[in-house]
Design a protein that fits this description.
Blueprint: E1 2-7, E2 12-17, E3 39-44, E4 56-57, E5 70-71, H1 105-108, E6 114-123, E7 129-139, E8 141-146, E9 149-154, H2 173-176, E10 180-183, E11 194-203, E12 213-222
Antiparallel strand pairs: 1-2, 1-3, 4-5, 6-11, 7-10, 7-12, 8-9, 8-11
Length: 235
């Protein structure tokens, strides 16, 4: 499944396929009244691995994919150009200022490469979900725990990292500001009715490093129960 959102500062457009399926096309027609660049957010999730998503665009109104559409980003073959806002390298904050809500620079820089983050959340019915994704923006590494059980890690020392552990590798700033989607559906059983906790052991690549970012998000896909109905008149 996937979700696509475009925003040109005047209008917002969106299409999605909120369920699993085999290979197929989803076509959306947007009436863009103002020319210029758009912010694009494309989120894709998979269930068993090996899935891919491609984004094509073309002028006109179509009900299905046509060969005149071009792969977005493939400028050599006529596709629309894409780019990311530049991310500054090094220095305090590493270009993350707009993302930071809790500033730990004074507490961490020169003192500790680790930080512990706990995010409480509530679940009304764990059985209502069939997919679970951990979305992470991070610099430089982390270990994630759901209700006390490890569910994901990146650039982390083996085993349980020490309270002052550092990341084993640098996560480039250009990637740190992009969500990495990690399928943790095999840990759905850890969800509890009521109070839950997502805990993150955030890891910088050194206590002296001037930039650090941990930005987690849990995304879930719910089940939809279909009720049989009869046609009127019956058939």
């Amino acid at each position: 499944g996937f979700g696509l959102e475009l925003d040109n500062g005047v209008d917002t457009f969106a299409i999605s396929h909120p369920g699993t399926r085999g290979a197929g096309d989803t076509v959306g027609v947007f009436n863009v009244t103002t020319a210029g660049p758009c912010q694009v957010r494309l989120v894709m999730y998979e269930r068993g691995g090996g899935s891919e998503v491609e984004l094509y665009a073309g002028a006109g109104s179509y009900g299905a994919w046509v060969s005149s559409m071009r792969l977005v980003g493939d400028t050599a073959n006529g596709g629309l150009e894409v780019w990311s806002d530049p991310v500054t390298g090094g220095g305090s904050g590493g270009g993350f200022a707009a993302l930071i809500r809790t500033d730990l620079q004074t507490a961490m820089e020169g003192a500790n490469a680790s930080a512990y983050i706990r995010i409480p959340f509530s679940v009304a019915d764990p059985g209502a979900y069939e997919n679970l994704t951990l979305r992470m923006k991070y610099d430089d590494g982390f270990v994630a725990y759901l209700n006390g059980t490890e569910v994901a890690r990146r650039n982390a020392p083996a085993g349980t990292p020490a309270w002052n552990a550092a990341a084993t590798a640098e996560h480039p700033n250009s990637l740190a500001v992009l969500y990495e989607d990690i399928n943790i559906t095999n840990h759905l059983g850890l969800l509890q009715t009521g109070a839950n906790v997502l805990a993150i052991h955030g890891l910088n690549d050194g206590a002296a490093d001037g930039d650090f970012l941990i930005m987690p998000e849990l995304a879930e896909i719910g089940q939809v129960t279909l009720t049989p109905h009869y046609f009127s008149p019956p058939s």
